[in-house]
Amino acid sequence: MTASGQLQGISLKGRDMIELDEYSTEEIQFLLDSAIELKRKQKNGEVYQPLKGKTLGLIFEKSSTRTRVSFEVGMFQLGGHALFLSKNDIQLGRGEPISDTAQVMSRYLDGIMIRTFGHDNVINLAKHASIPVINGLSDMAHPCQVLADLQTVLEHKGKLKGLKMAFIGDGNNMAHSLLIGGAKMGMHVAVASPEGYMPDEGIVKLSEEIAAQTGGKITITHDPIEAAKDADVIYTDVWASMGFEEEQAEREAAFADFQVNEELVKAAKPDYLFLHCLPAHRGEEVSEGVIDGANSVIFDQAENRLHAQKALMVALMA
Ligand code: CP
Ligand code: NVA
């Protein structure tokens, strides 16, 4: 990879990362290959600073451990600087329009990452900013997480195409980005959710269209065992995402049969990988035995947030 983030004639300079549907299979593969290469460089102690003098703003409207730390550390390692901007501490939190915020920030920064509730906020920010905007999680999508997830599966399985990835639980932002990202890479993505908590129909349709192009497959079901059957990857996420905390009790009841536990994973391939974006609630969406068991790669996955996002930042901003 060159300092400008180019390889095999692929240039992503100046692009936004709102959701993976805007990226081709080849572009996603390029980002994954770059992430693996940047991970190798970092493990070897090679200094690689193509973002020297560049600054990324990090707007957070919700809590974060992994996203904040991996973006801040990633920018530092690439020679740049990251600016943590809690929504409550900037004028956006007092009603300054997102369009003005975008234009002002474009005069100072080289890129903006935003974690927000409404997906429209990400789209609006990107529309009015003249610099790349990266979605660090919205209620609809979490593409940076899925880049790290795909990297993790690729590292452990040596391929993505043809693998079955089962997502068991809430049809939320993670389910959406896994549907899109998995379909782009020719995977069979199976989502099992209870009635009332199914993934967005538009996203399902889009992922089916993508899968038809890539040789992937989409299964949407209410049956966790059907989804988990012969799966190479079993993925789950919290039952109550950020912003839905007051629904915790009713969601615990609705998701009671959707726990990923020792019984459910018997349906998967013996060498299945367990993934979870974290934070996790042991004893709710996943049993302790599964998340802390031999098939779990959750900490590789968390680490790969750093490498995948470094690859993304170099590609968009160098
Ligand atoms: N997985 C993830 O995005 O974690 P944080 O909420 O800690 O950033
Ligand atoms: N679905 C979770 C993901 C957290 C990384 C949430 O939105 O809270």
UniProtKB/TrEMBL annotation:
It is found in: Cytoplasm. Carbamoyl phosphate binds at residues 64-67, 91, 115, 142-145, 277-278, 305. It comes from the Bacteria. L-ornithine binds at residues 173, 237, 241-242. Its main location: cytoplasm. Belongs to the aspartate/ornithine carbamoyltransferase superfamily. OTCase family. This is Ornithine carbamoyltransferase.
